[in-house]
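Hi, here's the filled form for the chain we discussed.

Project: internal
Contact: R.S.
Residues: 194
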Amino acid sequence: MSVRYAKKAGKGVAVAALATGLILGVSGCGSEEQPTQNKPSATTSAPKSSGGGNTQPQSQEPAEVLAVLKGQDGFELVVNVAERDAGGFLTVKGLLKNTSDEPRAVPAGVRGNETEVLKHGNSLGGATLVDLQGKKRYYVLRDTDGRPLTTTGLDIVAADASTAVFMQFPAPPPTTTAVSLQLPTFDPATIKLS
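And the returned structure, exactly as it came back:
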């Protein structure tokens, strides 16, 4: 067998394998089967950022308010959820409200001053939890690229509107039942943990 013949045969096998893969991929994508109606749809646990002025006035408030942090220019952070999960994290969820009568930009200070966090735009990356009992401070978690695990892309909040936000921290020990939530440019507030 000559070298030229072996090269041609190798190309033919590669083309055949590629064509087979494409045919199988296309046939798998063309399924006309309808999803089962009684299966719940997949959801994410983290609210999406709603920067760019896409905020809406809230028609229904969540039932429980754990804390309200007062900020500058009419901003308030209303905390509705502070829950631990099995992975050792604590997720804080709530609403960032603009209580003034005109649209306002979210203060840039809420993202903190860490270089890694600043690279990823306006967020709540400057938030911390302080365990007064354990005398320890917890910072918002970051992913491997340095992005804070919190709502990002915060921009303008319309007058008398709010946007859903979240922040994820390492969970304090189970013996800690309350922490102080601190966010730059906002007054701190104590929240009870679930």
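Let me know if anything looks off before we file it.
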